[in-house]
Amino acid sequence: MLSQTREHNPWIDPLELDALHAQARVVREVIARLEPQVERGLTPDLVKRTRKIYFTGCGDSHYAGLAARLCFDKYTGIDTEPVESLEFSRYVVEFLPSDSLVFGISNSGQVSRTIETVKLARQHQAYTIAITGRAEGPLAQAADVALIQSVPELAEEMAPEIHGTLGLGNFHASLLALYLSALRIAELRGRLSAREVGQLKQELFAAADIIVRTVEENLKTARDLAAALWHLDTFYILGAGPNYGTALFSAAKLFEQPNQIGVGQELEEWAHEQYFLVRPQVTPIFVIAPPGNSRDRAIEQIHGARDMGGTVIAICDSNDEEIRNLAHWTIPVHGQLREEFSPLAYIIPGELFATSLHQLKGKPPLFPPYDLNQMMQVNFRQIFHSAIREK
Amino acid sequence: MSNKAQARNPWTDPYNDEMISLQARLVHEVIRRLEPQVEQVITPELAGQLEKIYLTGCGDSHYAGVAARLAFDKYSGVQTEPLESLEFSRYVVDYAPNNSLVIGISNSGQVSRSIETLVLARKRKLHTIAITGYSDGPLARAAAASLIQSVPDMAEDWGPYSMGSLGLGNFIASLLTLYLSALRIGELRGKVSSAQVAALKRELVGAADIIARTAEADAKTARELAIAFWHLHTFYILGGGPNYATAMFGAAKLFEQPHQNGVAQELEEWAHEQYFLTRPNVAPIFILAPPGNSRDRAMEQMRGARDMGGTVVAICDAEDTEVLQLAQYALPIYGTLREEFSPLAYIVPTELFATNLHQVKGRPPLIPPFGQEQLMQVNYRQIFHSKIWGQ
Predict the structure, then answer these.
(1) Which tens digits make up the pLDDT trace of A330-367?
(2) Do domains A2-192 and A216-361 have the same CATH topology?
(3) How far apart are the C-alpha atoms of B79 and B74, rounded to whole Å?
(4) Same structural domain, B64 and B100
(5) Among the listed ranges A49-63, A315-329, B153-167, which one has the minimum average pLDDT value?
(6) Does A191 touch chain B (CB under 8 A)?
(7) Where are the alpha helices (DSSP H) in chain B?
(8) Range A216-361 has CATH code 2.102.10.10
(9) Is B377 part of any domain?
(10) In 10 A of CB B196, how many CB atoms?
(11) The CA-based dihedral angle spanning residues A104, A96, A245, B275, taken in that order and rounded to the nearest 10 degrees
């Protein structure tokens, strides 16, 4: 594993499937490292006075907020809203209720818009917590307190070229930091007992095994699917509730890895929008259908897509025969998590597909005078060196 | 106008450009009809109780909520959150604060998920208002009170199939109803004075001229763009704040009219996601850059796209020479509205583009055994006859 990743160029080469497996280890390690930090950062006094919670971030960090909302709604009893960083820093921040708590999420700790979010939130008297991989990074420095999600020895192993990052595991790490924060708040507010929190944390630990099984069981299907769909360039991915975050995350893997058009869409919205583009043998539709509050609507959408000749890939529980029988393809999840924790496992099929597609077809070429070096330079300028508003 | 409209089949034939101009007349009519309704429905007692406001809907109705959030944040004095109907009805409704107001938007009044939203909100004893075109439709019946946005004599102009629909104008009608509601709540809560409300309403009325001028001035450019891009099938549309909704609305017009892949993205997010797909001569990027809190970031994104050979179409103020010079193409707005009202005019360029693209290239064929009739039947089943929870 170590020798393979050392030769790996993270900007162009496909991920090894080992990198997906490693996320299971991230789950165990991150929980162990973050628990004491969450206890220190979320004090009884802070929790008592908090009236509103925002999660802010860009890209995967924003999706982690979307994925964690249900957990906060269910356990904390505090009104919670995930807001993309620019939407927060340029629009929402001016209207914050008093005693707001703002989480700013960025593994690199260098994303300009998220740093801006935390700085402006503090100016507006909100309490701010950074969730980041770097204690010395500008995001951590900008916030009142930081939860450091990185696991240095794992980061070194998973992506030594990108210091401090857990690669694909960043999303898991951010999500777990948020889940643990929700459980801490709920316990301090008396909405969950210590015993209940203990049981929920056991479920989070158990996600590691589900991740491993789901990776192993789906390797062949993901490759077969990539081979069957290699000639296509647009893929719709539908999900609801916490798994709307999963759908957006999965689409992002298609942008980042094979540079293909992934379109994450909220489950209901598809019927009102991209439905009109359904034709046979084009634009496959991945439908995320875990047990929970949207399963019935997912089944309806699968029927609708099939009735117009669409190709449907279900991402569902491995024991859900009804859905498996409805879809053309299935990338099942092997094990059950409550819906609020389900993104931990339901992101795996999208990761497997994007990785397999990248391995199979590479990326579309960059024509001179454009090249990879310029693409990364411009990207870093765009996301790390955007002008930060100070007020 | 009536004769022309009656000659077209709204399910297959392109709109005429005149239908875009027609929206200008709608502004006056909707404000005139809605003002007394809003006064009647939003009472001092209701406005005084509110802890939180949710703006819910599907498709364009959801985008109206996203577009109106800034006006609510700025003027109403009540925490406001736009949410897609399913996200509210299946996930958030159980945790909404007491004394929340849930505004459910659906012009047809028949969208199952938006009806479900109000049914479940009422079961939780939350305040509910329907914004709809049909006083006798199921959405209106599900709500405690309704605001009827239809203008029957104008609906006739949209053609014999319109059945009370204002066609493209539904979005503007919903948006104006929301703006008037925000101003009413703000006035009743003492956040804005009567004089301020009157001045703001005059600005809303003034949007009509800006819509008419923009539709007229951009018609030729929209046609040229449609011809220049006729061979492409994916179009990115970026916007921040209220104009993130404008971007989603613009993408929706591409789905509905020429059945092309419109991909809306939040302005900041593009740099973290679809940026990686940028290549010369593919997938043009429309960037909404009105005067306001995101203009600087819009310019940064234009430079980023151009540095990788991307094709940029700016939608900006007609006098904003700095933005105009950065883009290869522009569909400017002829007149200025404050940012919270700007979607009223900023939707016009993408309406023009989608309409012209539809006129130039038609739609991709539906291959037998799939046909137009089945496309609409399945669509209606999906959105109007989905199983409603709580009934």
Answers:
(1) 999 999 999 999 999 999 999 999 999 999 999 999 98
(2) yes
(3) 10
(4) yes
(5) B153-167
(6) no
(7) 2-7, 18-41, 44-49, 60-71, 85-87, 112-123, 138-142, 152-157, 170-188, 194-228, 242-256, 269-272, 295-307, 321-326, 343-346, 348-361, 372-384
(8) no
(9) no
(10) 14
(11) -70
Q: Is residue B374 part of a domain?
A: no
Reply yes or no on whether the pLDDT at A82 is more than 80.
Answer: yes
Could you give the CA distance from residue B307 to residue A378 in angstroms, rounded to a whole number?
7
**Confidence band for A24, pLDDT divided at 50, 70 and 90:** confident
Q: Do both B308 and B170 map to the same domain?
A: no
Asked if the C-beta of A219 comes within 8 angstroms of chain B's C-beta atoms, the answer is no
Q: Is omega for the bond preceding B369 within 30 degrees of 0, making it cis?
A: yes
Residue B86: the pLDDT is 98
Name the packing angle between helices B18-41 and B170-188 (round to 10°).
30
Task: Say whether A297 and B296 touch across the interface (CB within 8 A).
Answer: no
Check whether residue B53 and residue B96 sit in a common domain. Answer: yes
HSE value, Cβ hemisphere, 13 Å, CA-based, for B17: 19
Residue A160 pLDDT class (50, 70, 90 cuts): low
Same domain, B87 and B236: no
Question: Which of these, A61, A54, A106, lies nearest to A83 by C-alpha position?
Answer: A54
Residues of chain A contacting B296 with CB distance shorter than 8 Å: 387
Q: What percent of chain B has pLDDT over 70?
A: 95
- Is the domain of B179 the same as that of B314? no
pLDDT in tens, B351-389: 999 999 999 999 999 999 999 999 999 999 999 999 999
Which of A259, A277, A383 comes nearest B277 by C-beta?
A259
Count Cβ atoms below 10 Å from residue B74 Cβ, excluding itself: 20
Q: For chain B, state the CA radius of gyration.
A: 20
Label residue A9 by pLDDT band (50, 70, 90).
low
Same structural domain for residues B226 and B324? yes
Domain assignment present for residue B272? The answer is: yes
Banded model confidence at residue B18, pLDDT cuts 50, 70, 90: confident
Q: What is the CATH number of the domain that holds B233?
A: 3.40.50.10490
Out of B94, B273, B279, the one facing A364 most closely (by C-beta) is B279
Q: What is the DSSP string of A343-385?
A: HHHHTHHHHHHHHHHHHHH--PPPPTT--HHHHHHHHHHHHHS
Chain A residues near residue B383 by CB distance under 8 angstroms: 271-272
In chain B, how many domains are there? 2
Contact A280 B370 (CB under 8 A): yes
pLDDT of residue B22: 84
How close does chain A come to B123, measured CA to CA in Å? 17
CB contact under 8 A, B251 and A273: yes
Quick one: pLDDT at residue A193? Answer: 98
In a domain, B368, yes or no: no
All structural domains of chain A with their residue ranges: 2-192, 216-361
DSSP A90: I
Cα gap B142→A35, rounded to integer Å: 45
At a CB cut-off of 8 Å and minimum separation 6, what does A352 contact?
A17, A20, A215, A218, A219, A222, A331
pLDDT interval class at A6 (50, 70, 90): very low
CA atoms within 13 A on the CB side of A47: 21
- Domain membership of residue B30 as a residue range: 2-207
**What's the average model confidence in pLDDT over A26-38?**
94
Record: fold of A2-192: Rossmann fold (3.40.50)
pLDDT for position A22: 81
* A69, A86, A268 member nearest B297 (Cβ): A86
Q: Are A40 and A150 in contact (CB under 8 A)?
A: no
Q: Are residues B270 and B173 in the same domain?
A: no
User: What's the confidence (pLDDT) of residue B158?
Assistant: 60
Residue of A4, A293, A282, A230 lying closest to B120 (CA atoms): A293
Contact A383 B272 (CB under 8 A): yes
Distance CA B359, CA B351 (A): 12
